[in-house]
Amino acid sequence: MSALFRCVDIGKQYGGLVALQGISLSLEVGRVHGLIGPNGAGKSTFIDVVSGRTPGTGHVYLDDRDITRVPLSERRRMGVSRSFQRTSIFPALTIREQLDIAAHGAGGGHTGELTDMLGLADVLDARAEEVSYGQQRLVDLALALVGNPRVLLLDEPAAGLSVAESQTLAAHLEEVAARWKVAVLLVEHDMDVVFRVCHVLTVLASGRWLVAGPPDEVRSDPAVIGAYFGSAA
Ligand SMILES: Nc1ncnc2c1ncn2[C@@H]1O[C@H](COP(=O)(O)OP(=O)(O)OP(=O)(O)O)[C@@H](O)[C@H]1O
Ligand SMILES: [Mg+2]
Fold it and tell me: Keywords on this record (predicted)?
């Protein structure tokens, strides 16, 4: 199977700091690819570069088309969507209003099925500040899913959620990938979520590629235990 979204030799420098160097990974339809690593490893920077938010080096391909120079807004309309590490919702707007704005940016699309699936139908007319934090993070996910993206880049969607809320989110991610045929990149520190939903993992440390493979192999890799789980313990 050829990959839907291919990132090749991605790099990024901030002044003298090499935030990312030589990172390649591919996303496939219906699969969740986990991107993990300690704080400052470059995970958010990777999403910033491949989504088109931040300039970097390397190449990005969608359906084998080189989209490296395609601007962010156009990538979004082509079906490359992302969420942010911190909630990107507007507290004073209703959830319906924010979804409408996102639909406009994504080039259209109706949101009814989406909000039903995520259990948000009853709070559509509430302002974002009036709903629970767990629901706010589901709104972040809903905003990223507006317009039926083909590629979904998620930056720590479970951060700050309770165990139960994280499990709900994990179930939604599995459904999005499998049923909606989305290629997902999941940056996440919650290892219960990572090991539950990811088919394959790439591990970064200090901007460098450390190891990649199936979760069970990565989990027992000595380099990962040292660099990642060692420092996280
Ligand atoms: N706008 C920026 N200007 C300068 N340096 C930056 C900028 N954004 C990130 N960095 C640096 O780049 C490196 C990678 O940061 P990044 O946020 O991508 O890491 P991360 O893996 O997402 O970490 P975390 O798990 O804490 O979210 C860090 O050293 C960070 O300080
Ligand atoms: Mg980050």
Answer: ATP-binding, Nucleotide-binding, Transport
